[in-house]
From TrEMBL:
Gene3D superfamilies: 6.10.250.2860, GTPase HflX, N-terminal domain, P-loop containing nucleotide triphosphate hydrolases. It comes from Catenovulum adriaticum. This is GTPase HflX. Monomer. Associates with the 50S ribosomal subunit. Keywords: Coiled coil, Cytoplasm, GTP-binding, Hydrolase, Magnesium, Metal-binding, Nucleotide-binding. It holds the Pfam family MMR_HSR1. It is found in: Cytoplasm.
């Protein structure tokens, strides 16, 4: 069996232009993925086919060309910009005499490098195990050996069966641990809902600038870089929005075309933040020539995780890379915000984003002036806790005069058990 490739190795890339537009991939995106994985590209071999070859994907002649390129450049790994079947990988490795990775395996490996939290590591390992479980036949020379006697394997159990059993056991163990993490996340979400704290989720194609925008709005220090999947683990921060109050902003993993299904399934608990959000900010790299295709790819993943019915605002980012584009808001015929043009890198237009969130999330507000006597000063802590005080002063009698402004639903909650008392305090 060939050892798993390591970051820093040298690769030959293989890209095929297929007649089927749905199955087509982007060569420049493959180069970015390879660079993000820390692998050096030695050469790119391209081909055109009506459909993939059943055995070698690229056909016998092209496979021999790649084999000669690998030998001449002493490459360690060959990376295909397409999904390969287990048998295709095995056949290609037999010719190339080195490790072969398909697009799915490459994305999984990048995710494995990026995961930092316990939950992220579990999710990536689960996706990898599900992917590997279909590829155990590849590269092994001992799988038909049978062994009985004492130990993990029963009488007549092959090494392949043992490997599959061990992987199944590990998958079940990870799924149980992720269920516990999901319960904790659900408790946090339920707590926020009880507190009526709205959630805004950043979604978008990988490298669209979500983390840069997140840092700009929250003043957080989330890792952001000009590479694919720079940020993997979700990050939540509280922000204050005018007429809304405390709001949760969630930065989630970036999407990509043909995101592996096992990965989507493994990250469903994390992506629940996107599904339960009050508003999605769909961040788009406006300078990317493929932005239309990227938008479509993101919406497809949102549909897959059942998050396509959440209200969405398009955020056209990176306007600093275009000429004659100023920050502005586009509205539909009814005056609703549909698109915001800004630059997260320079900060231009970010105030328009906060304005849009105010319009989208703002609850009906009420304003009162209260006169609270010295004997009722426990209300001072209550009102300060609601962060609703606009102005305050004291009368000659020592009464606390306070102007408050807060959402109607919060005021109604206060009235529920204190209506008679609060009505006495109101002076206008």
């Amino acid at each position: 069996m060939f050892d798993r490739y390591k970051a820093g190795e040298q690769a030959v890339l293989v890209h095929v232009d297929l007649d089927d537009e749905v199955a087509r991939e982007d060569l420049e995106e493959l180069k970015l993925l390879v660079s993000s994985a820390g692998v050096q590209t030695l050469a790119v071999v391209t081909a055109s086919r009506a459909k993939p070859d059943p055995k070698f994907f690229i056909g016998t002649g092209k496979a021999e060309e790649v084999q000669q390129t690998v030998k001449a450049l002493e490459a360690n790994v060959v990376i295909f910009n397409h999904a390969l079947s287990p048998s295709q990988e095995k056949s290609l490795e037999a010719i190339f005499k080195c490790r072969v990775l398909d697009r799915t395996s490459l994305i999984l490996d990048i995710f494995a490098q990026r995961a930092r939290t316990h939950e992220g590591n579990l999710q990536v390992e689960l996706a990898q195990l599900k992917h590997i479980s279909t590829r155990l036949i590849r590269g092994w020379t001992h799988l038909e050996r049978q062994k009985g006697g004492i130990g993990l394997r029963g009488p007549g159990e092959t090494q392949l069966e043992t490997d599959r059993r061990l992987i199944r056991g590990r998958i079940k163990n990870i799924q149980r641990r992720l269920e516990k993490v999901e319960k904790q996340r659900n408790q946090g979400r339920r707590s926020r809902k009880r507190s009526d704290i709205p959630t805004v989720s950043l979604v978008g194609y990988t490298n669209a600038g979500k983390s840069t925008l997140f840092n700009r709005i929250t003043e957080a220090e989330v890792y952001a870089a000009d590479q694919l999947f720079a940020t993997l683990d979700p990050t939540l921060r509280k922000i204050e929005i005018e007429d809304v109050g405390k709001t949760i902003l969630a930065d989630t993993v970036g999407f990509i075309r043909h995101l592996p299904h096992d990965l989507v399934a493994a990250f469903k608990a994390t992506l629940q933040e996107t599904r339960d959000a009050d508003v999605q900010l769909h961040v788009i790299d406006v300078a990317d020539e493929r932005r239309g295709e990227n938008i479509e790819a993101v919406n497809k993943v949102l549909e897959e995780i059942e998050a396509d019915d959440v209200p969405q605002i398009l955020v056209y980012n990176k306007i600093d890379q275009l000429e004659d584009i100023k920050p502005h808001i586009d509205r539909d015929d009814e005056g609703n915000i549909i698109r915001i043009w800004l630059s997260a890198q320079t900060g231009e237009g970010c105030e328009l984003l906060l304005q849009a969130l105010t319009e989208s999330l703002a609850r009906k507000m009420v304003e009162f002036t209260l006169s609270i006597p010295p004997s009722e000063q426990q209300w001072r802590g209550i009102l300060f806790g609601l962060n609703c005080i606009e102005n305050e002063s004291y009368t000659e009698e020592g009464n606390w005069l306070v102007d408050i402004r807060l959402p109607t639903d919060e005021w109604n909650r206060l009235l529920k058990n204190n209506q008679d008392q609060l009505n006495k305090f109101i002076i206008n």
